Each structure stands twice: as C-alpha cells, then as structure tokens.
Amino acid sequence: MSVLFGALxxxxxxxxxxxxxxxxxxxxxxxIMVGLILGQVxxxxxLNDAPNWTEEGARFGMLWMTGLMAPLAMRMGxxxxxxxxxxxxxxxxxxxxxxxxxxxxxxxxLIAWDKGWNNHVNTLSGKGCSSALRWPFxxxxxxxxxxxxxxxxxxxxxxxxxxxxxxxxxxxxxxxIELILRQLIFxxxxxxxxxxxxxxxxxxxx
Length: 206
Description:
Helices cover 68% and strands 6% of the residues.
C-alpha cells in the first residue's frame, strides 16, 4: 500500500498544477469565445457585416476550453454517469466495478492518444492552414513551439486547434492513472487517507 501512496502523491501534485493552469487558460478561452460570439452577433445584425474570422476564433476558444476542462471534470467526478448497477452491488463489488471501468477508460484514452496524434495533429489536415484565423498584429511566425509555420505565413495551422483535444487526452490519461491508484487505495481500506475532492463520490471516482 505504501508503494501506491508513493506513486499517487507525486502524480496528485502534478495534476494539481497542470489542471490548475488549465483551468485558468480555459476560463480565458471561454471569455474570448463569448466575446467573439457577442461581437459577431452585434456586427452581423447591427452593422450587417461581421468579420469572417470571429466564428473560427470562437471555435478555437471552445476547443481549448473543452480540452482543458474535461480532465478536471473527470477528476472531480463531474461526468454524467449511470450508477444504478453500482449502487445495487455490495461495497466491494461496486469498488471492483469502478476499477474495471477506470481501466477501460484508460485503455480508450490510450487509443485516442494515438488517433489524436497520428490522425489529426500530425497529418496533412493538421498541417493545413486556417481559412480565416490569423496571428494577431500581422505577425508571421516561422516556427511556434517547434511547429513549422512557413506554409501558412500569418495564418494559423489547423493543428493548433486539433492540439487542444490531444492535450486534453494527455491530461485525462494522467487523471485516469491517478484515479486508478486512488481506487486501489480505497479498496485496500485506506480511503480515509486520500485527499478529499469535495464529496465521497469524487474521491472514489465513481
């Protein structure tokens, strides 16, 4: 059991930092998205002419908001769940069922990691150029975070949007591993030593 705690605590601290930063960025992305949508409505219906980049910019904000908030919601037990079977089972069987579901979730996320990178981010589509969204202030970066941008000049490459969900999958993989460790500790009878996320369900990752 001490081995499980030894693996859990560093991962828990890492997730605290990453998800905390992600939450701040997600809030900023949400604010940008709402601002662009409101601006688009104003210009379209008042001035009858909205900038053509506002819709794509709002979608950019929405994707990053989703990619960064989904891991936090998963960690806090905020996803929709059908738990009738779990509640009908004895405590031990319910805990084992939860562990099984967490294992399946991790397996699916690992598949999504491969598909997200090889089918979206690092593809011809991902290397394609945004139709309207450009870097601000006329900037034409040659490289951003090691990504060659010479093909698109001042426009975004589409993989800057696709990367949002790929980042989200990576964060959810870390969260899944943490939740599996927490569930093993819970099944070992030491769940009262775990950090409380807000309620018992979140702690047990049900």
